[in-house]
Fold this sequence. Notes:
heterodimer; A: about 270 residues; MetI-like fold; 11 helices; globular; B: about 375 residues; alpha+beta; Rossmann fold; CATH 2.40.50.140; 2 domains; 6-stranded mixed sheet; 5-stranded antiparallel sheet; 8 helices
Amino acid sequence: MRRLTWFNVTSLTLGFAFLYLPMVILILYSFNASKLVTVWAGFSTQWYGELLRNEEFLDAAWVTIKVAVFSSTLATVLGTMAAYVLVRAGRFSGRTLFSGMIYAPLVMPEVITGLSLLLLFIGINLDRGVFTIVLAHTTFSMCYVSVVVSSRLTSFDRSLEEAALDLGCSPFEAFRLVTLPIIAPAVISGWLLAFTLSLDDLVIASFTTGPSATTLPIKIFSAVRLGVSPEINALSTIMIAIVTVGVITASIISKRASVAQQRDEQAAARAT
Amino acid sequence: MSQKVFAPWEDATEKPLIQFKGVTKKFGDFVAIDNLSLDIYQKEFFALLGPSGCGKTTMMRMLAGFEAPTHGTILLAGQDIAPVPPNKRAVNMMFQSYALFPHLSVWDNIAFGLRREGQDKDAIAARVEEMLRLTRLSKFAKRKPHQISGGQRQRVALARSLAKAPKLLLLDEPLGALDAKLRQDTQFELMDIQEKTGTTFVIVTHDQEEAMTVASRVAVMDEGRVIQVATPSVIYEAPETVYVADFIGDVNIIQGRASQDADKVRIDWAEGQPPIIGTTQKTFSPSQTCHFAIRPEKVAISTEQPEAPNVLQGRVIDIAYLGNLSTYHVELPDGTMMKAQTANTRRLSRRDITWEDNVWLSFTDTAGVLLER
Lengths: 272, 373
């Protein structure tokens, strides 16, 4: 079954080539000594150094990180709350509608999300800048957090919370002392997911930003319009690295920790 | 000095610790508890026994505060507990799944409830140590729940629920997950701890043997109603209904028509068969349908016709050998199957009754119980 037939090898190569060839080329050219993007002139890390001296890029990076940290934190709090309520509320009429409405932004075209947020911000006369991007990113990344957290909560043994109540916890204390520590891996990986999503986003950010705030994706996009520079390649490589680390960490944390936790929980529930 | 028998339910001056007064619990259209009234006294080890879905767990969850009765009131020490949330009740529960906190050590699990009370550190430490000693867990205090065995987990759950010294401890199928041998040991351990702490225990179980072993009184439940509440021996020897007789232990039930003479009743149960003679305090009207219930161990089996008030002839169809006991399934001439049980005081090789043998079954006129339904 596990033999590498020529068919398997070909499809694997093709698939990975489609997925990663463009990125590999990008990363390779970020180490190109030549200023001309399409001509290879030897290995060099000079563009990384140049990047660090570029004030505009550094500013944009700072804005991006601020937006990502705040929006992912806010999204984690809101998403966890939403997941908790939806999983715990049990069956009530309109439950499917509610959970559907939480998850709908997952499939909503970004252009539409961005446009509607822009209209809202104009409508309530909010100055567009870092704050509005944070709000917008929270809006769309919250549903990812809530998907991750609610899948963990559905396998959570409810009697643990009842035991906490029985031993004198208020419902909030039961959540803080028992539920949260146990679902923490899911919450953390939700946060990392929201963080990388916010780091990546171009469309929604460009709809909701103002002249005062430029994120890295916006910066890259507008710079590329004037021509691809090796500096941009270097910057993109760094972003690929950050996002990769973020996503891999998130999936490792959620896999390992939740598998371990569930195993412990089941072991604790099982007698012999 | 005469030892006083523990029987507060017979003392009219004794105030019950828990009173269910006309309690009904509905889930939508489904009636889980049907107009149920029940008194449980202090220091009792009270067992709620019934098949799954009979409402026994619902009763326990109402006592713990996780469910509220639809109608009726539940009093704990004379006070209505309906408005009291679970975290404010002097009631603790040992969960069926144990519900140990997987992220906390054994020590922290036991200390959890004490910390919520805001006691000072030394008092908590002293109490936890005491609980660890009581449940023989001192060696495992630092371990996490998944690092100890099932029996130990069960004891941690017990220690945790006893730590706050509740007025009432609820045990939801506490031994369900343990294997038979460990379960027996733990039953005696539970009784021992209950005696030492003087806490009132209410245990939910579907295992009749467990209920009989541990409980001071047993309530047999069916479909949201309590059928009979009595001590284990009364439940076994004097069941009030066929349901109770059948649920607890093994029983032969013979249906027939009664004709009463003082406390003796003649039961005509089959054409051409001698009537069964029974004894009862009840009054049966002539030719009223009645059920005669007799336990297999009270039916004697022999190869020669014995002298007894009731003697029936039959043929051995099946023998269930249990080691210490053997149960004979005997077919009577009209096709009725009757079970007779004997203690195997002799070695198997010398057994003188075997399959297809014609045998005599006999029992005294007080061995069985007469039931109306």
